[in-house]
Amino acid sequence: ALIRTTIILAVRSIRCFVAARDMADAATADVVLSDVHCEIAIPEKPGSTLTSRFPFQLPCPDCVSSILDHDDDGDVIVERRQQCLFVIEHAMATPLDSVGKQVWHGALLLADLMLNMKHKLDGAVVLELGGGVGLSSLAAALHASTVICTDIGDDLLHICHNNINCNMRSSATVLVRSLDWLQPRPPKGDQSYQWSDHDLTTLSHTDVVIAADVIYDNKITDAFLCCLTHLFSEVFSKQPLVYVTLEKRLMHVCLVWSGGFSCLL
Q: Which of 50, 116, 114 is nearest to 87 (CA)?
């Protein structure tokens, strides 16, 4: 079964590579395609956007109870989980400098983690670094009081902002803000995605920091760690929890971490 699973994953990776390769001719930059989108018809233009449906189930608070209730016929009453859906705008194959417009496996793992962390997120301020199209921040917003989803590039932040507005299912406050890890001081101003004084005060009270699939390139990894260091030393008024999820990539991660972590907590 393990060998069969490995072959299936390898075939899917090859399909993604071939699909992405076929989208680019000799005159265009290299493009990459997330495994998450392998079964979706690929638009002709690299980087063009479409919407995908991401179904999920809200955790049942009573599922861990050892006491079983029965109906009048003696049958066990099964607590059904609430079925929900996020509809996310995202890109398909993109150049490496625009991979934040895609949905990656690390974001799915992080979103699932957020859905099952009500005990840690209830009333919390959550900061997402490299939030991309906003899927993980949406999941965190189901429990947190405030979520700050950050990334760079007005076009990406606009997609993220639209996804947040179209999928909000709670009373949480969700801010979409610009944060460049190479210049980690949040840009203040009145323009779109810049930070107000109130935003910066909220940022200083961060309880949880999350990030998905931010470790895939040496320069990006160094910048991410430098940004975290700056936030902890200069911005945060307390020591928040940090959750980082990532997809094991043979081309990048395994060369650095032979252990091949699929999730860092």
A: 50
Question: What pLDDT score does 76 carry?
Answer: 67
Rounded CA-CA distance 128/75 in Å is 44
Residue with tokens 């991410």: 224
Instruction: Tell which residue, 194, 195, 169, has the closest CA to residue 83.
Output: 169
- Specify the pLDDT at position 14: 47
Is 253 strand, coil or helix? helix
Burial of 84 (0-12, 13-18, 19+ CB in 10 A): middle
Cβ-count burial 4-18 (b if 16+ within 10 Å, e if not): eeeeeeeeebeebee
State the Cα–Cα distance between residues 237 and 135, nearest whole angstrom: 27
- The pLDDT of residue 203 is 98
Provide the CA 221 distance to its chain's centre, in angstroms: 16
